[in-house]
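General statements about sequence and structure are easier to judge against a single worked case. In the encoding step, the backbone of a single protein was reduced to a row of integers, each denoting a local shape. The record that follows shows the chain in one-letter code together with its fold in token form.
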Amino acid sequence: MRLHRLDTRAAVRGAIEAHGRAWRVAYADLLPASVLDRVTVEPDVATVEEWLDRLPGDDDPGEALGVTVDGSVRGYLFVRWGETKQFVGPDEAGLKELYVHPDWWGGGLGTSLLGRGVEQLPPAVETLVVEALAGNEVGQSFYESRGFRRDATDEIQIDGASYETVVYRRPVSPRAGV
């Protein structure tokens, strides 16, 4: 297993596949098939470029990390601090995305990504905040078992429909470990 910055086309291509496969499994009972079928698992060049454009660069307030096993990216994390969602305060960072290919769930990849992501946060960040779809048992179990606590509910729009979310918070001090 190798943790690294998610900044090459090949790495982003693997992250997109992991993202799409995770969505299709984790959200199978939560989102309509019409939504899940549109989530890319075999990205074209334009999709890879779009993802590269939205990832933080050297001067951006955030980090995108991938985890590679057997030569392929099997998961990724995207965390941002500074201006982010309305429920993320000035001394907090938002865990925007953390997805692992379902074939690799339970193998420690998500935990490793989370730990490295916490290590990358600036010293002023005291809390990590994540929003998960309500009913996403895989995601909620993952976050709760790593010290995140339910703090609020919100909602998100997906394909014109509103879905309830759960907002979790976790102190990031001390920085080492998950």
Observations:
- DSSP finds five helices and seven strands in the chain.
- Helices lie at 9-26, 33-36, 45-54, 109-120, 137-145.
